């Protein structure tokens, strides 16, 4: 049976916007981009490596997929994440893209129904709007929340808007030397499958 796992980098106040770079996502005048970089360390890298080692395809929303193309598609840095990202089957959900030819091994999906019809294990990194939609549809099976010890006071939050009552079980956690908590949750109540 297909499963969908989402890895989300989040602040203590629930912000998921602009984790990686100052220019990553400035929508709404967001000025705190790149807030996550100072919390990187070997423990966090090892935890993220475990997620990358899992089998299955990747699932993206349009914005994150296009952003990742700029970061990963032409990289030649020898980073093991680069090799993984480029080799993996990538599904991008978009009603506006004409095609998914800009990044190797990418397949265009038009709707959440197309996602639900896939018979593959899928992992999501980022893509907050897509995660919100999938969660509302009861399609997220597991979350890895990478919780950073910072509040930003503004920005797009993970669960903005309506979401169904869904219960999750904590299945593991790791604290990094810089205070990041990597928490793994598995859904135990059905949501609206």
TrEMBL record:
The GO terms this record gives for MF are:
5-amino-6-(5-phosphoribosylamino)uracil reductase activity
Q: Where is the Bacterial bifunctional deaminase-reductase C-terminal domain?
A: 3-181
GO biological process per UniProt: riboflavin biosynthetic process
In terms of Pfam families, this protein maps to: RibD_C
- Known InterPro entries for this protein? DHFR-like_dom_sf, RibDG_C
> Which Gene3D superfamilies does UniProt cross-reference here?
Dihydrofolate Reductase, subunit A (3.40.430.10)
Top-level lineage group? Bacteria
**What's this protein's name?**
Dihydrofolate reductase
User: Which organism is the protein's source?
Assistant: Lentzea waywayandensis
